[in-house]
Structure formats: structure tokens, C-alpha cells
């Protein structure tokens, strides 16, 4: 591989990284991209995540109530990138709500040995 080709690949990787950061972490869009379109796409990606998270954790969606869109948007902005998987995203959102007093702590499971006690 030539030095010129390696440099071009490096520039492309950096540009792709900036684009992903703009889409998922609220960073400034890279040069040459329409900021309004990037914002619209980023908003669409957050809405898709919110929809999946609400299906996976209906308890979290219920706890957020009417504020689900705003709460999830704030949660998404608080992270530098989405977690690796929707289940983790859903559990992290529930924990985020719990930290803010919007969701009760999960019920404690009884210990296996407690049923043996009189």
C-alpha cells in the first residue's frame, strides 16, 4: 500500500468517525454535511432507540410517562455513544431514571434459603 493510499484511508476513517460522533453523540457535523440533515437523522436514531427501549422495558417507559421523549433524549445526550445493544440501552435508561427518582428500585428477590425458615 502506498503512503498516499494509507493517508487517504486515514482521512476517510477520521471523517467517518466525525460523522458517527455527529449522529450519536451530538458532535458538530463534519465539513461538507448539511447540519440540519445530520440533526434530523440524529433525532430519528434517538427516536428509534427510544421505541425499542420502550418495548424492552415498558416499566421504564411507564415511569417516564408523558415525558418519555424528553427523558430519553436527555439520557441519550448524557452519553458519548449508545451502549452495545438494545437490552443494555434499556437497562441503562431504567437506571438513569432511577437515579433521578423517576423509577422505583426493583423489588428484591427473596433468598432461596428464606423459604426454609419458619
How many strand elements? 0
Taking all Cα atoms into account, the compactness measure Rg is 20 Å
Question: Structural class, judged by helices and strands?
Answer: mainly alpha
Poorly predicted runs of 5 or more residues: none
Biggest beta sheet summary: none
What labels describe this entry?
5 helices; SCO6045-like C-terminal domain-containing protein; 118 residues; SCO6045-like_C; mainly alpha; elongated
Give structural notes.
With 118 residues, the chain is mainly alpha-helical. It has one domain (3-101). It has helices at 3-24, 35-56, 58-64, 68-77, 86-99. Helix 2 packs across helix 5 (86-99) and helix 3 (58-64) runs parallel beside helix 5. The N and C termini lie far apart (75 Å). 16% of the residues are buried. The mean pLDDT is 90.
List the helices and strands and how they pair.
Layout: H1 3-24, H2 35-56, H3 58-64, H4 68-77, H5 86-99
Short overview:
With 118 residues, the chain is mainly alpha-helical.
Amino acid at each position: 500500500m502506498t503512503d498516499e493510499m494509507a493517508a487517504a484511508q486515514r482521512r476517510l476513517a477520521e471523517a467517518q468517525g466525525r460523522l458517527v460522533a455527529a449522529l450519536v453523540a451530538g458532535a458538530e457535523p463534519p465539513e461538507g454535511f448539511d447540519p440540519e440533515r445530520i440533526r434530523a437523522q440524529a433525532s430519528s436514531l434517538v427516536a428509534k432507540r427510544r421505541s425499542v427501549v420502550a418495548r424492552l422495558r415498558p416499566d421504564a417507559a411507564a415511569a417516564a410517562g408523558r415525558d418519555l421523549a424528553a427523558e430519553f433524549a436527555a439520557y441519550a445526550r448524557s452519553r458519548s455513544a449508545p451502549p452495545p445493544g438494545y437490552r443494555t440501552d434499556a437497562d441503562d435508561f431504567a437506571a438513569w431514571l432511577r437515579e433521578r427518582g423517576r423509577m422505583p428500585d426493583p423489588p428484591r428477590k427473596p433468598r432461596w434459603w428464606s423459604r426454609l425458615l419458619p
